[in-house]
Structure formats: structure tokens, C-alpha cells
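Notes from the pairing session

We agreed to fold both candidates in a single pass and log them together. This is the raw record for the first candidate, unedited. Please don't reformat it; downstream parsing expects exactly this layout.

Candidate A
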Amino acid sequence: MKKIITILLLLSTYFVQAQSKKTDQCIKALSNKDFIIDHDNKASFKVESKAAKKLLRIGRLANTKLIEALSDPEKNVMAHWVLCQINFKTVTFAGPKTMLKDGEQVNMYYLGEEKGEGVVIFETKVNGEFKMYFDKPQIEKIIVYWQKKTNGK
């Protein structure tokens, strides 16, 4: 009986380590460039990310690493989207609302929980390419939000 328990413990340890390594690889491959806003159709987007799909399969075990990825300006939009998909099974997207900031047109989109909190994605067009980002106060707010939401899960 002790041998069976020992073998099961060793196998579970191996599985957890393999899952953690897979999660790390997927987080590393996340990119905001894979979150594509359709500018021809209002409030429409698509996600083209193999890493995100793998993280969805991993599920809530990836929450901690995804929350850490929210601090990375190259990954935070995708990390937030994956967190919404894993924890709510859906994500709400609305916009754009346009404003001028420092003489530059900025589009704003909401991404988050349908009847809850979310973040505003800011988007600017630089040299013909769109660049998405969260501002610093929103990053701090959404990290705290996800830490609270996932703490009990």
C-alpha cells in the first residue's frame, strides 16, 4: 500500500511540474498582437493565439501566472482576456469611444465581466499600425481585481 501511495505522489508531482512548465511556455508566447480589433465592425474582435487556447485548456491552474502577466504591456490585454474566459466563460467587449489626447486620436474599448469590472483598452494609431495598451492605474486595479476574484478558486 505504501508503494502505491509513493508512486501516486511521485506521478502527481511530475504532472504538476509539467503543467507549470507548459503554463510558463504559453505565457511567454502570449502577445497583445493576437487580440485583433475589427475596425470595420463596431465592438468586434478576434483572438488568434495558440498559446491562449492552450491556457484555456489548462484552466484555473494558470490564474496566478496570468495575473503576473498583467504587468507586461506586451501581454496584458491577452492575459486579461484569457482570465475572463477561464473564470467567467465569456468576456464583454464594447466600443470604441474616441477622444483626443495630446492632439492624438485615442480609441477606448471596454474588456471585462459583463455586469462587473473590466478595463479600458486604449488604442492609438502610430505609423499606420494600431497599438493597444492599458494605463498604469488600470493595470494596478485589474491586478488587485483578479487577485481577489481568484483567491478563493
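Candidate B (folded immediately after A)
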Amino acid sequence: MLQARIHAPVRYNVRVDGAPAAAPGVTAVAARTGDLGWCLICDHPRNAGVSVTNGAQHYAAAVCHSLGCDITDLAWYELDSMGKFDELQLMGSSVGYAPLVQDGYKPRSLEAFIARTRQLPSGMPVEAVEVIQALVELFPAS
């Protein structure tokens, strides 16, 4: 997805055949069981548009529109422009952020995120782990 400016609509940044377009933007990875699930919204390190931090509610609305669900049906997470995981609390037009902390894991880490989502009803599908690992590898080691 890509949002050029804060008041511009979110565009799906893929070609008609589903392959990625040339310009990096924001990627969403979601898992659902029934009506409940989770979604990770990830900034690409070279996102030329609005960051997830500044446009989370717009990106979340676009994801929900695509999935045909309500924003409250998903637990929301962010992989920020520094490669760190946060929890998002989406409350209407405002967004709250909290570092992802999971007992027994380094805060804001991929391992903490995987452990957290495995506790949710939708779990952590193997395919999602592979995609998220590839996203994390885009970021320089911190």
C-alpha cells in the first residue's frame, strides 16, 4: 500500500497481476480465524509515502476494506521504520503505540511478535513467518 500524503487516499501498490510495483510502501500481513485475527503493518525502509506511524488508521482502514472486516476484529501491530515491533491501539481517529513486550523475549523483537501472535486464536501461520522474516531483513541490523 502507499499513501502519498496524509490526506491522500491509500493506494494498493501492486500491479494488476498481483506482483509488487516498483515503488516501496507499506506491507500488511494478516491472519484470521473466523472473524478474529491480527494484522502487522510494516513500513518499507524506503517508503516514499506516509509512514505507518503517521498513517496507521488510514492503512488499517484500507486493510479492513480489503478483508471485509471491522477494525475491532483484528489485533494491530506495527513494524516501524527502525525494524522494531509495536502494538497499535486504534481508537477512531487517534492511534496509541506501545512497545511489544512479551515475557521471555527481547522487547520489540521478531521473536516476541511471533510468541504473541501464537497465543491468539488465529495463531502464526508458517507462511506469515516467512513473509515477516523477509520484511525484517530489509532493515539494517540495529
